[in-house]
Write a structure and sequence with these properties.
The protein is α+β, with helices and mostly antiparallel strands and 212 residues long. 46% of the residues lie in helices and 22% in strands. The protein is built from 9 helices and 7 strands. Strand 6 and strand 7 form a beta hairpin. The longest helix has 19 residues. The two termini are 21 Å apart.
């Protein structure tokens, strides 16, 4: 089942309605109170990230479900030009893109960079740690693949797996692992993927309540 699509902006429009949509989907599928709360928390984390994106951004939110398997979708598109976004980030006192803090900060940073194809060659390590390459891309430089692929996908599970392998030898990876252990979305979601298609970016949060 696919829910109604809610139109959003990072200025707050549609946020409350989207959370209500997630809760309604939980009720429709018969989730208990604890499961409903977890789905609500996941939607709040996702929508809260949208609020942090610099410049005017519009998005669409919807829920897909089958049994106790849920997907929260947010498809975003910037409403300002790339130079305008760069200028906003330059004057921002928080320096968001310079130092993304926490898991949600990193997800938001990937979102913002995806809006600007010129930044594809200047990605932070966490982007590369979670990048999924197709089978046909084996042996290709990931940056070259990112710049030329019609669709690029970043995976939370791939990121977690890579960080887990690197944390014994890398202080940066150890800090990332600590962030993952403290993150609501990293602990509650089965998977989070960010798909980049041109100037549109879609985040999908996956959660199956059937096995837990």
């Amino acid at each position: 089942m696919k829910s109604d699509i809610i139109m959003l902006t990072n200025e707050g429009t549609g946020i409350r309605e989207s959370i209500e949509q997630a809760v309604s989907s939980a009720a429709y599928r018969g989730l208990n109170n604890k499961e409903t709360l977890r789905l609500r928390l996941l939607s709040e984390e996702m929508l809260g990230m949208l609020r942090e994106i610099a410049g005017k951004t519009e998005a669409r939110f919807w829920v897909e479900s089958e049994g106790k398997k849920f997907q929260l979708h947010m498809l975003a598109c910037p409403q300002i030009t790339e130079p305008m976004r760069k200028e906003l980030l330059l004057v921002s006192s928080s320096g968001k893109n310079a130092a993304a803090v926490g898991v949600m900060g990193k997800l938001r940073d990937i979102f913002e960079r995806a809006f600007d194809a010129s930044e594809i060659g200047d990605q932070n390590s966490y982007y590369m740690q979670g990048l999924l390459l197709s089978a046909s891309a084996e042996g290709i430089d990931p940056l070259v693949y990112s710049a030329n692929a019609n669709m690029v996908t970043w995976s939370m599970q791939k990121f977690k797996s890579t960080v887990k392998e690197e944390k014994e030898t890398s202080e940066e990876a150890l800090e990332e692992w600590d962030e993952l252990e403290k993150s609501i979305i990293a602990n509650l979601a089965d998977e989070v993927r960010i798909a980049i298609r041109g100037n549109k970016v879609e985040m999908t949060v996956y959660k199956d309540f059937g096995g837990k």
